[in-house]
């Protein structure tokens, strides 16, 4: 019986072929760019590594090399982008066994993180000082994200027909590709991102007036053909925060603020995950683990207090 021969193709070339086969035209451009970035990094880290040399030790060495210049969370993301292709290589008989089994994720010392969200008092300070004029402007954009937790691209894509005033909700079923010169509508990040977000009565009435004369299927915050930059709006929000003496956050930080305050108010992780359009509650738990742990500590105090009352 002849011994089975495994692939001797260079690893970075195999990974490139795998991207072409499984990811081209199958994922969003921004996601595809990440796969190609990983491929270039693999070529730089281990340009001479062949598939038949890809065992657990060599794979761990790849991760260790990458971790020398990247934080642990980034290294984990790098690993996730690689392992799907390796699973396929094992299934296709190109590798003898899975080299990603029981890997250790390392990383360089994390930089001091910028605050991601505001507390209730600081958020109220920001919202009270927004220029909410009778005409729709970017300050209304900030208010909307703070009250809904929409992603930047989701909020940009909103049109008048997305506002359901009878049911008091905003329908999210698309996003706006603002990264290309000719911006255009595109699908949401994932299937779970297609959702209806309940909004308070006051905000719905305010927007009913603001969008009354807007074209039903056109974006409400900018004119067609106008280029929108995430960095420009983030600078505007940063300037507001600095002038008010509150922590500076990004527009995505308004989404974090929205979710954090809901969790502090006792809203379930499942409900917050659904409102944010997360794929599952695991994503929500990992993103807001510090808050969830804090709430668990408070719950434990309540549990112990309750138990002490029992006779």
Automatic annotation (TrEMBL):
All residue ranges annotated as the Tyr recombinase domain in the record: 113-305
Claim: DNA-binding is one of the keywords in the record: yes
Any one GO BP annotation for this protein: DNA recombination
UniProt entry keywords in alphabetical sequence: DNA recombination, DNA-binding
Molecular functions per Gene Ontology: DNA binding
Record field: transmembrane: none
InterPro entries per record: DNA_brk_join_enz (IPR011010), Integrase-like_cat_sf (IPR013762), Integrase_catalytic (IPR002104), Integrase_recombinase_N (IPR010998), Tyrosine_recombinase_XerCD (IPR050090)
Keyword DNA-binding assigned: yes
Family affiliation: Belongs to the 'phage' integrase family.
Protein name: Tyrosine-type recombinase/integrase
Organism whose genome encodes this protein: Lactobacillus crispatus
